[in-house]
Amino acid sequence: MDVKISESHEAMSYHAASQVAAYVRARESALICFAGGDTPLRTYQILIEMQKKGRVNLKDSYYVSLDEWVGLGYADKGSCQQMMRDGFYSPAGISESHICLFDGLSGDMSEECEKVEAFIRRFGGIGLAILGIGMNGHIGFNEPNGSDREGCFVIELHEVTKRVGQKYFPNGVPLSKGITIGYKTLEKADEVIYVAGGEKKNEIVKLILNSQPNPEVPATMLKNHHNICFYLSGMSFI
Ligand code: F6R
User: Fold this and answer.
1) What is the tens place of the pLDDT at every residue in 136-166?
2) Domain 14-129+139-191: which topology?
3) Active-site residue, from 15, 67, 112, 158
């Protein structure tokens, strides 16, 4: 487990983006898994800036999104799909055939799970995953004491996830279920990146760093991954 502390969100994002860029440069067609949420957005913008300067080509890689709120789609500002399309896929010029996203509006969630699992299988697994950390220690929608199945699944969201998730939706939306890639599949990635910053994440990050893997705090389940790096900023306890 590697831990890289930065003095600012900007520096943390730059370091995380540099690892992604190095991974992409070394492979002809990598499969990358990107989390939505606020924390990694600047990392994605920096990757786009690197591409504009000719320092990395993001367009030959493939991308699978980590999760989605069940019942929400692209038209819902703050959905994972909206954040990822507008925050990365569109400005980076990634073609539709290189992207796989959960459709939270689909009438058949098992079909959505199968679609994403099949996409991951095509590449023999995820290459690199960037994951944010929830206030309850979730990764994607791998919730505290939730399912530990392989592949993808729908889950009843933890109370903290429902409450904190409202930050993405200023007008308020009902949040009850999520669809996600399970951590058993994420742990098979070649490289895992955690990004977390700010005072509000201090307590949960400290708990993760100081705990043995346990399902009560899902982010701990990957901490013994053979190639995991925590990119952190604003951690006053360190
Ligand atoms: C979102 C996701 C979530 C977030 C986590 C942290 O796609 O997978 O697990 O990464 O809730 O969110 P932020 O970065 O907004 O604090």
Assistant:
1) 999 999 999 998 889 999 999 999 999 999 9
2) Rossmann fold (3.40.50)
3) 67
Instruction: Judge residue 210's burial from the number of C-beta atoms within 10 Å of its C-beta, 0-12 exposed, 13-18 middle, 19 or more buried.
Output: exposed
Tens digits of per-residue pLDDT, 44-88? 999 999 999 999 999 999 999 999 999 999 999 999 999 999 999
User: Is residue 199 pLDDT above 90, yes or no?
Assistant: yes
Residue 47 in contact with residue 21, Cβ under 8 Å?
yes
Q: How far apart are CA 179 and CA 174, in angstroms?
A: 15
Task: Look up 227 and say whether it is catalytic.
Answer: no
| CA 141 vs CA 67, 84, 218: distances in Å | 7, 16, 9
What distances in angstroms separate CA 135 from CA 25, 82, 199, one per listed residue?
33, 22, 11
Residue 28: in which H helix or E strand, if any? Answer: none
C-beta 38 within 6 A of ligand 1: yes
CB of 87 shorter than 6 A to ligand 1: no
Is there an atom of ligand 1 within 6 Å of 218 CB?
Answer: no
